[in-house]
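Dear support,

We are seeing what looks like truncated structure output for some complexes. This example has two components. We would appreciate it if you could run it in full and send us the complete token output so we can diff it against ours.
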Amino acid sequence: MVQIWKFGDDIDTDQIVPGRYAPYMRPNEDVGKAAFIEAHPEFNKLAEPGDIIVAGENFGCGSSREYAVLALKRRQIGAIIAKSFARIFYRNAINLGLILIEAPLVVDELSDHDLCTLDLDGNRLEVGNHRHRLPEISPFAREIVSAGGLVAYIQTNDRLPGE
Amino acid sequence: MGQTLTEKIFSNSLGRVVQAGEIVVVQPDVVMSHDSLTPGIIDILQQDFGRNTVQIPNQLVFSFDHVAPASTVGTAENQNKVRAFAQRNNIRLFEVGRGICHQVLVEEGIAQPGFIVLGADSHSTSYGAVGAFGSGMGSTDVAAIWATGKTWLRVPETLRILVRGRFQSGVGPKDLALKIGRELSISGATYQTIEYHGLDWLPLYGRQTLCSMAVELGAKAGIVPPSGEISRRFTVPEWLFVDPDASYFRTLEIDLETLEPQIAIPHAVDHVVDISVVAGKKFDQIFLGTCTNGRYEDLRAAALIIKGHQISDQVRFIITPASSHELLRAMADDTLSTLIAAGAVLSTPGCGACMGRHQGTLGKNDVCLSTGNRNFKGRMGDPASQIYLVSPAVAAASAIRGAITDPRYI
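Here is the complete output from our reference environment:
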């Protein structure tokens, strides 16, 4: 069982990792330790590998900083389930192999600190006795994520996605 | 059926007719990255792709603007790493103080009408000001372009903004950009291109203000159809014009005749109100700069209001020109001297305080009026600080009074 961390709408990348905590500014620090360091100190201290982020609309808006995704990846976040994602964040997450699921109908059914089990192959999320059906990840995105991210995809297939 | 400017630019790049919704693989004309992310992109290229060279060196351009000059040993060493890489691979590099990437690429004629310009920076939507398709990407996407020369993109649908009338006195492009945010919301153009129509009369600087903020509504790109100053300064391809029967996802009309000065209040770009709602509020700092409002015309608008006044001793006023060229323009007349004599301070051309790293970082409970594009919590410093987004005219009028002021009343 893993824990759900629930966020609202329009979570911007300055909240996920403030620019002042960028690898450029702190080259010898693990950016994973900066995840939500100011916006959600409890998450920053307590999030465990496999935990799920659940959020409203437009998760990851703002800057193109890939280290926002990298920080969550380093924390081994199991997936982000949101009503919608900002586009650069969405691409960055696919490219680094972080699972994003757009599930607008499921988000409102989930609460902060719910304990759950995520079955990615079966597109299911179990919370207590309740089993939520998750929408399929788009085949295009799934192919990149399954390959292990964009670099691995290109190296394995010797071509770009969509080529 | 007609095409949108986005469809035309992708069709030209691929040599076949392309429609919105298609996923295509293109070779971008220009790929930009700056000092903040280029060191990490070099790492991805070398460590993950196992390469030391880039596929198409003259496709790339580097700019030093985010923390420039360096403020720490770490940033200094990262910059040296980028300099060495650029020299080894024969890549164009714009040094410390030259200015913000999005301004410099336009000044240098690197971003051109009809080009696909991708940047490792979300405000790469700015290049739409010259009629390019400009869009931001993350580091791994950019590293993949360095390695292969190409990238995949989904050709976006287009949302049309139809602007009517002209700005009233005291109202300008930033107010329009904020008003569009107010109408569309922070995610109102996600995955789409915004085309701005009805602005043939608008000079380049105003188009840059609008297009830089397209990303704040979630847009993939923002394009003003090339005309006027752009047609005079750039070569516009004969195919790059608006088809009357192009298909738009949505059209939003905005009337400039009734537009008042706008202000975005903390902590979201779409928390926009008429300035009268917050007039009289005290603040601590003004930041006049950024890729949105750091050009000569922005500094000029501020100087014309401040001329004959002093900046309140209750506030600090930081000017960060968008580029060395814009600084020189502000020095060629009395723009800069007026602002400095009134109590403003000048910092190195570049991104300045925009992301809270240097040259005006905010402390706890500091309130800043910024002519920039983002007021997210903690962006410019302590999470208990506050950012209001304003036009250069509102910044200048407020500087005199030491409180948020409608420039029409000075």
